[in-house]
Amino acid sequence: MQRTNFESMHCPIARSLERVGEWWSILILRDAFQGISRFDDFQKGLNIAPNMLTRRLRALVEDGLLERRRYSDKPARYEYVLTSCGRDFRPVLLTLMTWGNRHFAQEGISMFLADERTGQQVEPVLVDARTGELIDREHHTLRAGPAADERLRSRVEFSRQQRLQGRAPTPSSSP
Amino acid sequence: MQRTNFESMHCPIARSLERVGEWWSILILRDAFQGISRFDDFQKGLNIAPNMLTRRLRALVEDGLLERRRYSDKPARYEYVLTSCGRDFRPVLLTLMTWGNRHFAQEGISMFLADERTGQQVEPVLVDARTGELIDREHHTLRAGPAADERLRSRVEFSRQQRLQGRAPTPSSSP
After folding, report:
1. What number does CATH give the domain A6-87?
2. Which residues of B fall within a CB distance of 8 Å from A156?
């Protein structure tokens, strides 16, 4: 496999992918959010090979997204539950779902986010936590932070130059 | 590689992963959002093998996330720009970045979302587009839609049962 050590890239997106950049990991987290916690239930739901599931669960535990807890002594049995780091992954799953529903649900919606109180479908959108303003590409851009390395800094600078020259996809062409 | 046809799973998260469930694809999209459009620039920025880059770009074009455009006739040269489907992927990148910054930025923030007008860091959060209410696990849950297959329907029902029995991570244990 072509795994590269993304950790060596300073970008926080690359770092996140270092933890969940395998299809299975994201689907396991999705199922954990739906209350699945036992090996057999993950296995049955995902139709995943047991050795692959073992490997992905172990990685998610090592990376601090799942916690392995003993729930039975005789025989010794374990379950896997989301840590607070794992629970913080929920917005990624919801934005993936929203994108999938918008573009790849030819025959209709198979899963959606609902308001538990009304049953109505909810469209989740990103806003500025402080002001409530919708995040868009015209007003919200990426910047290099104090811990950025040279590569990341130059990428952000390249991006700024592209914007200034109007070569980057312009805000007006964005949705 | 252990690629499974996620398309056969009806879940919109699985379907999204079918398009971008490779580390490289997500990093290529990230760079496209920063205005990178040419093969050599992607290659230099990502330090990716050319044949791998060719393969990932082709898949992103086939899946409708990037458009391949000729920008020079002699010699014939092409650039890759985000389609509207590709631009709609931005919230996924921003939530991945936010999660990475929160949990995996030990030595400080290397990249952040800023308000272009003030330069201040912005924390993007998910809200209900209609009401502006914060999305949380107590009030917003996943439901099966009309196009759900049996497997997805039973997974959602399992999740509901877990919640009712209090076995699922309870809302009060969520952040």
Report:
1. 1.10.10.10
2. 34, 111
Cβ of residue A155 closer than 8 Å to a chain B Cβ:
yes
The pTM of this model reads 0.88
Residue that has been written with the tokens 């999204």 in this structure: B16
* Domain definitions of chain A by residue range: 6-87, 132-167
Cis peptide before A171 (omega within 30 of 0): no
What is the token pair recorded at B25?
């694809």
Q: Which amino acid is at B124?
A: P
Looking up tokens 């047991």 gives A50
Residue burial A52-75, b: 16+ Cβ < 10 Å; e: rest: ebeebbebbbebebbbeeeeeeee
Cβ-defined contact of A128 to B130 (cutoff 8 Å):
no
Chain A residue with Cα closest to B3: A23
Tens of pLDDT, residue by residue over A95-147, are 999 999 999 888 888 899 999 999 999 999 999 999 999 999 999 999 999 98
To the nearest 10°, report the CA torsion of A8, A58, A22, A175.
Answer: -80
